[in-house]
Design a protein that fits this description.
single chain; 384 residues; alpha+beta; 4-stranded mixed β-sheet; globular
């Protein structure tokens, strides 16, 4: 058993940690508002080669494996949790296109994503249910050499600024369930597309909101994969992305643990550093060990992905455990700073608000536990 990173992975970690500290962390608090991430920041991520880096080099990929992709998510989230969202959506949409699109579509769709010229969105969730993705109601009606898309998607990350979206829409009947859903790569500047932006507790810079489609004409050549195969394509993609979400949350929490360790070593009370008191040092010791355990779970799933082996239930467990644990750790870091931690001038409250969003997004802890239970017990544990 070898837990060591390769030399290339260590170099990537050190390079991105330095970038996050120098380029992202100083502006993290200033970006805590209902405004989109600066396009120049997204372009920098593209120049670093961390946007959909696992796709073929001829389409802009940089040859990274999935463990390296996880390292990128963790390190970028140390500096700006919401910048890591750009990596997440680019990786997820990029992986689906790389696996399911034809050669022409890959050549057209992937390079702008890898360069950071546009942020892609994923249009799955609808008002009638987020986790019941198999019962998509949005309609895609064939009209000559096009489809007309009509319906609504909600809780969409980057709804305010995404240049394109991979949208799930029903080309079959409701009775066909998941097999009646197709995937379309849609230019979100097309006539008939309108957007809203929610006022959220955290992750304000990612512009979560709604996308409305009013008879939006999409060329048939923008359908990705076979008609009726969209749902299956997305569900396969979610497996690895759940581990990436876990590492984003761990990166944010680890940064606060590091900052809090430095603070309690320097700050004095009763004639000694705060770190001398077990009521202060033990919560940090517990956080360090629990974060390391959750981190190993995430990387094991990605390591299995690189080996082509099943990893679904480990990723689901990572998506449940890491956001929940990270929110708890960030709360503890806030408290260990006393009333100073309650100030908006320190980043712990912002990181905690941002991480809470991913306790919900991409499947709640209850959904993830259901996936784990179904794997270890069998179909008898399936509630539907």
């Amino acid at each position: 058993m070898d837990f060591a990173l390769t030399g290339e992975q260590e170099l990537l970690r050190d390079t991105l940690r330095d970038f996050a500290r120098r380029e992202l962390l100083p502006g993290y608090a200033a970006r805590d508002k209902d405004e989109d991430l600066p396009p120049a920041l997204v372009k920098k991520l593209g120049e670093l080669g961390v946007l959909a880096p696992m796709v073929d080099a001829k389409h802009g990929g940089s040859g990274l494996d999935y463990v390296a992709l996880g390292i990128a998510h963790e390190e970028i989230a140390r500096g700006d949790f919401n910048a890591a969202y750009v990596l997440l959506l680019s990786a997820l949409v990029g992986a689906i296109i790389a696996r399911s699109a034809d050669a022409r579509q890959q050549a057209v769709f992937l390079p702008p994503i890898c360069r950071g010229d546009l942020i892609p969105a994923l249009g799955v969730t609808e008002p009638s249910g987020g986790s019941d993705a198999a019962h998509v109601k949005m309609q895609a009606r064939r009209d000559g050499d096009s489809y007309l898309l009509t319906g609504e998607k909600t809780s969409i990350s980057f709804s305010s600024c995404a240049g394109a979206a991979l949208v799930m829409a029903r080309t079959g009947t409701l009775e066909e369930g998941a097999r009646g859903v197709s995937a379309f790569y849609v230019d979100l500047n097309s006539p008939g597309v309108t957007r809203t932006r929610f006022r959220d507790l955290g992750s304000r810079a990612i512009g979560r909101g709604q996308l409305f489609f009013d008879s939006v004409r999409v060329p048939a050549e923008s359908r990705v994969g076979a008609e009726g195969a969209g749902f299956i394509q997305v569900m396969q993609g979610f497996d690895f992305s759940r581990s990436l979400i876990g590492l984003m949350c761990i990166g944010a929490a680890q940064q606060s643990v590091d900052e809090t360790c430095a603070y309690v070593a320097e700050r004095e009370a009763f004639g000694a550093p705060l770190a001398r008191f077990e009521g202060v040092s033990f919560p940090l010791a517990e956080a360090a060990v629990r974060l390391r355990a959750a981190r190993l779970l995430c990387y094991e799933a990605l390591w299995l992905k690189d080996r082509g082996e099943p990893h679904g239930w480990l990723s689901a467990g990572a998506k449940w455990l890491a956001p929940e644990l990270s929110a708890q750790v960030l709360h503890q870091c806030l408290l260990l700073h006393g009333h100073l931690g309650f100030s908006l001038d320190l980043p712990h409250q912002q990181r905690m608000r941002d991480v809470i969003g991913l306790e919900i997004g991409d499947g709640t802890a209850q959904i993830m536990k259901t996936l784990v239970a179904r794997e270890i017990i069998g179909k008898v544990a399936r509630p539907y």
